[in-house]
Each structure stands twice: as C-alpha cells, then as structure tokens.
Amino acid sequence: MRNNCLHSLGMKRGLLSGALAVMLAGNAALAQTPPGPPPFGPPPGAGQLKLPPGALSGPPPGAPPGPVLTPAQQIAASLPPPGPGGLPPRPPLPADAPMPPSDPRDFQGTWIHSQPLEFRAQKDMYGMAAPFTMEGVKVLARRVQSLIDGKPFINASAICRPPGPQWQRDLNFPFQIMQANDHFAFIFEEYHGRWNILLDPPSAAPGAPKAYMGRSVGHWDGTTLVVETTDFKQAIWIDVDGTPLSANGKLIQRIRKVNDGGHVPFLEIITTIIDPVYYTKPWSIARTFGWQPYQAVFAEYNCEEQVGDPSVSADAGLVPEPQD
Asked: Sorting pLDDT into bands at 50, 70 and 90, what band is 58?
C-alpha cells in the first residue's frame, strides 16, 4: 500500500484495452450506442419461478427499472478489479480498557479503520456504481493503465505530500482526534498527516493559502459533526488506485460516534463527493473506525523510505501524469 499500489502491476492488459478503445471513440459515439445490461446479476432465467399458463412474467406494471449503467460506468466496470484490501488482525479490547468519552460530541482519543482497505471506490454506500462522467472515467482508466504498464503516476503520497482527507482516513493506520470549542485536529500516523477542521471560521487567519488537505469548516447537526472541505491546493486522489477529485471538488463529511448497544462505540464517517467535472451527481461512501486506546503512541513512519523518493531509488518507476 505504501509503495503506491504496485500490487496492481500484474493485472492483465487485455481487460483494459477494450475499455480504453471505447473511451477513445469519443463521447458522441458512445451516446449513440444504447447501454447494455449491467455486468452483474444471475444469468437469464436463473432462479425464476415457473409461472402457470397465461400468467405474465417480469416486474409488475409501474415498477422502477433496475440499474442501467451509463457508458462511463460501463467503462469503469470493465477495468481490471482492484487488489483485495486487507485488515490487520487486532485483538479485542479487554473488558477494563479505557472507553471513549460518554459525551456524543466528544470524539477525542485514538481510532483506526475497522474495515478492509478499499483500493478503489467502485460503488457508493448503497451499492450503486460511482456516477462517473466520461472525463472522470478517463482519468481513472489512465491511472489503472499506468499500474498495468509498470509506470504508475506520481501522486501526493509518492512525494510525501498530504494525500487529502479521504485517502488519509482510509489507510489502515491509527489517528488521534483532538478538539476544542473552535476546532478539531485529526493527527495521523501515516504521512504524519494532519486534518484541521474550523468550527469558527471568522476567527481563523484571513487569506490563508490553499492546502493539500483543503479548507475544512464544520458545524454541529445534533450529535453529528458536518464538515465541508473545499479549496484544495491541487486535484487529489480519493483512494489508492486514483479515483479522482478535481481541485474545485468538494467533500462533505458527516461524523458521529455510534453506540449500537455493543461494548465499545465506534466512529462513523459518511463522505459525500461533489465534483461536476468527474461525476454526474453527488455520491457517498461510508467508513467506520474502531476505538484503539492502546495505539495512542504512534509507530515511527518514514515517508521518505517508500518507493517514489529518488534519493532512495534512482529509478523508482513513477512517472508524471499527463495533464489534460
């Protein structure tokens, strides 16, 4: 994971060539081609009941149609699948472990991703395909192809720059939350990252330069912290494989501490991605984070030692990404 997803280098080239050929044919040609059936689901006739003579098959009149993929979504679905995400084993907390604060608005403490890492966000939180525009899927396909070619593109993580809030949170490394009346700070082991959230924007210094992590402003909606992140210094990657967000894109994060009756509450973050350049509509992904008080002392992390730093390897294998 730290080596810029070189896990994908062994993927078959043939799976992607057809997708890229379709894309290069142009939006106009694609628009004239009726979309085919979605590439999932059982084969025709599988699992269907045998109806009595004279009975009508199919959905009842007025029933909404099933999901039909757009041309851009068809291209995304035809890309080689991402590598399988892992989740490091973690022993359960002992019964006498320190617990998170009881105040539902107090998120302070140490948390870590409780789901397997997703190298590529292919679907939203409801299982629907990400709503790519043709421009968005073009960028994603180009990045996946670069992995197949063995020449992955340079990205923020490869040169030890902040990778953006979504990618930073998604990695399987612990982070600490600190908060005060006017701000939150998420401190990450990986990349020595820091995500600052302002609750009182007028009190912040005016004219602050744009940041790689963007500018995040939050407010409370009951016990949910709603954070809007904009003003990115540059376009960012949503995930390891390069699902894109333009510099003018927006992330809206809804953060809450959930106690579902279990022994330990967990943190839930639902992120809505808004970017008309790369997506036809907003879409949301959900992540959960477990309480880990015993990982409050971070392990040493040396970003400079990962593949991508030419001072470590004269030929790290990464190349600049073409700009459209």
From this structure: low
| Residues 258/267, Cβ–Cβ less than 8 Å | yes
**Cβ neighbours for 57, distance < 8 A, ≥ 6 positions apart:** 48, 51
One-letter amino acid at 311 equals S
> Residues 238, 219, 181, CA angle at the centre, nearest 5°?
110
pLDDT in tens, 10-27: 333 343 444 444 344 444
State both tokens at 207.
């004219």
Instruction: Report helix, strand or coil for 55.
Output: coil
Nearest-CA neighbor of 222 among 265, 252, 257, 195?
257
Residues facing residue 269 across a β-bridge: 255, 287
> Average pLDDT of the chain?
81
CA distances to 28, 65, 280 from 74, rounded to whole Å, are 15, 17, 14
- 306 Cβ contact list (under 8 Å, min separation 6): 2, 3, 4, 157, 158, 312
Q: Which of 56, 75, 66 is nearest to 133 (CA)?
A: 75
More confident residue, 99 or 91: 99
Per-residue pLDDT reduced to its tens digit, 247-297? 999 999 999 999 877 778 999 999 999 999 999 999 999 999 999 999 888
CA R_g for the chain: 22
Residue the block writes with tokens 């016990």: 223
Long-range Cβ contacts of 9-16 (<8 Å, 24+ apart): 9/147, 9/148, 9/150, 9/152, 11/80, 11/144, 11/147, 11/148, 12/80, 12/148, 13/148, 15/78, 15/79, 15/80, 16/78, 16/79, 16/80, 16/141, 16/144, 16/145, 16/148
Give the CA angle between residues 210, 125, 218 to the nearest 5°: 35
